[in-house]
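Support request, please re-run this one:
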Amino acid sequence: MSKSLKDNLSSRYFEAANKLNSKDSRRRIIAYVESYDDVFFWRSVLSRFENNRRYFEVMLPSREFKLERGKKAVLMNLLSKKVGENMIACVDADYDFLIQGRTLASKEIVSNPYIFHTYAYAIENLQCFGPSLHDVCVAVTLNDHVIFDMNEFLRQYSIAIFPLFVWSIWYYRTPDYKDFSITDFCRVIEIGNFVMENAGEILARVRHKVGQKIKQLQQKNPNAKESYLQLKQELKDLGVTPDTTYLYIQGHQLFDKVVVPMMKKVCDRLVREREREIQKQSMHSTQYRNEMSCYTKSIEDLTGVLKRNVGYMRSNPFLHIVSDLQKFLNRKEETQEGKNCSALNGGQQAYSAGQRLG
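Re-run finished. Output below.
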């Protein structure tokens, strides 16, 4: 083997080795999250910002702060210690974003540059992003037939509950929030047993319950009209539209009691449809058994696929998260450039002084 070829191979070897070790030379930014389910979500957000200068490590606060989980553990333990340019907190917004600084936790979430939040109530809301639900059904059932407009159902559901949602935030911003708690709100907006053929009746029932509750709240708060309308406009300015209210209600309520029951009915129907196709197209019993076995093994678990759904990347809350992170990283880079310039100027001044002394 010639010397030039050996040198070339050696160079490639060290280049490859350096690439393997490059993570050690990049700056690590720790991102603390609330729970195990949040790790994948925030990894999907943060990975787009990784490059040859920085990388993120998403972790729970349990590594340093015992076995604590949840927003309170993240905020209370980290804010008083060392969140900053190399350590950030990533949390669910809950109602804290919408109440705009009425509590200590809300103040930190809306103003601290090292805390990033979902804008939507929680990651579950974003996983249930309406325009992405058909894709989830296809991933689960391997059947691309549209048999029910889930996005439209969520839109109509959102329009139905929006007026009462404003009341929920109105109460949550006052000391009397227990008089109409989030639990009370969720109880009113429950859809009950979901049946595709009765979707219109379900929505009508929700609208009726919402209307009855609004009458009660109006009677109890006869002087609240002006503040209610002002809050309604403020919420719209914050991104809560009548069409997208479902993104801002309690996450588990949406995921467990609205979207999953709806999608299960849709997916079950799609699976049965596919099974009938296999039965109809099979030439003999052996082919039928083989095709059914293959299809059954390919079907995915709905809840698992929904929790890994990244269709929310098209949603406005997600775009806000990305924008906030970009601003954070831009500030960080500008600060670093300023430090580098200061160091360079200091070195040049020292060199000039040395030349004069010489």
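The first helix runs from residue 3 to 20. The mean pLDDT is 87.
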